[in-house]
Amino acid sequence: MPQPDHVIRLALPDDQELGEDLEKYFQVCEEKIGFVPNVLRAYTMKPNKLRSFSRHYNEIMLAESGLSKLEREMIAVVVSSANHCYYCLVAHGQAVRQLSGDAQLGEMLAMNYRAADLEPRQRRMLDFAWKLTTAPIDVDEADRQGLRDVGFSDADIFDIADTVGFYNYTNRVAHATEMMPNPDYHGRNR
Questions:
Q1: What are phi and psi of 36, to 5 degrees?
Q2: What does the domain layout of the chain look like in residue ranges?
Q3: Is the N end or the C end of the chain the one with fewer CB atoms within 10 Å?
Q4: What kind of fold does domain 69-185 have according to CATH?
Q5: What is the pLDDT of residue 52?
Q6: pLDDT tens by residue, 35-55
């Protein structure tokens, strides 16, 4: 079956001047993971937005937090599952496989996170992420207290909410542009 050969369903500039900083950023991606993720290629349409997006992603996913990198990737997958975001399910499902060492966990989270054998802390975190994505108006103090009850601080709760919000945003951009994941993600960490 032929695979899609597009990054997004919008015309990206052929010879966009990205600037030295972004060219270097793309080189680092090539060196660290072997390719430039299509989400970054999509943002070449607007280099300043690419800079902002990259800074925001790095702050949410890599900065100091009471959430582990794996927990943040798990949130990305569960939010993307609720939103049926193909790009993020593939890309962040691979990250979950890599960080957890579990070849099945990414798919379990994508299909039905409730089927996964999770620690109570992770289960409560993902229940909160699902609810904040699918019924945000219904999130209340009992939900926040439930997170506290399994050891999350208020700063952690903010980080969970910020991560959920970020992936709801990126899922919508991916849907609107029909963004496709890099084929490289599919076979990794199996």
A1: -100, 120
A2: 20-62, 69-185
A3: N
A4: AhpD-like (1.20.1290)
A5: 98
A6: 999 999 999 999 999 999 999
How far, in Å, CA of 77 to CA of 70, rounded?
Answer: 11
Nearest to 41 by CA among 81, 91, 89, 79: 91
Measured between alpha carbons, how far is 107 from 9 in angstroms, rounded to an integer? Answer: 26
Question: Can 20-62 and 69-185 be said to share one CATH topology?
Answer: no
Pick from 117, 113, 125, 132: which is nearest to 153 by CA?
125
Domain 20-62 has CATH 3.90.550.10: no
Name the DSSP letter for residue 46.
S
Residues 6+ apart with CB under 8 A from 116: 105, 108, 109
Place of tokens 């794996």: 70
State the pTM of this model.
0.95
Contact 166, 88 (CB under 8 A): no
Listed as ranges, residues in the chain with pLDDT below 70 are 1-4
